[in-house]
Amino acid sequence: MRFSPAILLALPATVVAQGQISLGENLQAWFDQAKSYIPASVYSPVAGGTAKVAAENVTPLTKDNWLSVLSPSTKDSWKGPETWMVFFSGGNKTCFGRCEGVDKAWNESAALLAADPTGPHLASADCDDQAIFCTSWAANAPSIWYIQLPIPQADQSKPATTIHIVPLNVTTATAQEIVQIHTAKSYKQSPVYEGAFHPFDGYLAQFGLNQALGYVLFAFTLVPSWAFMIVISMFSRSIM
Q1: Across the strands, what pairs with 83?
Q2: Which alpha helices (DSSP H) does 87-163 contain, by range?
Q3: Fewer beta carbons within 10 angstroms: which end of the chain, N or C?
């Protein structure tokens, strides 16, 4: 549909004729009707702006930098644990092409959280590009890991790192829901993660096996399913 300025000029006259409706309702009705004439393909400056803010305030995580990025600073140790929100997303491989809406909600929430003086540090990882990293954490897309990094003690001891994993719905997740993970502490609705893949305190992390296992599991994902069937078939024949 071709967008015509004449349509916009005619809308105010229609709205004013409805005198029984309040001015606020009239303006909202006019705005909603005007939006219906704008093609969906028109570039959204709001979406573009939030994506830019997110890019400037969200640190990309990789298998090589995550440990250095997620290291608590002793500069503000008096504030207590250092809080991070890590967003895991993906593309066609790890999110089956359904993460576009969640990515948009994350960008919007990142812009809001970045403006909050009490907001957490923000990071993200694309599991299509960082498959080994996501596998070593056993992270699924889309989800947010709410991490509270403890400050090292004077005796060099390190308290446990608290992690809450918040899964996101690919169809219903909103920026408000993501923001409330921090502001309303909705992360507490998810239990504290204490599994073997805990990247800081888990069994594998204690022996430095997270990334090695990540490579192994990632290698299995590269093997086509028919190859496993052949191996199983050959094995079953050999024992008969």
Answers
A1: 148
A2: 100-114, 131-137
A3: C
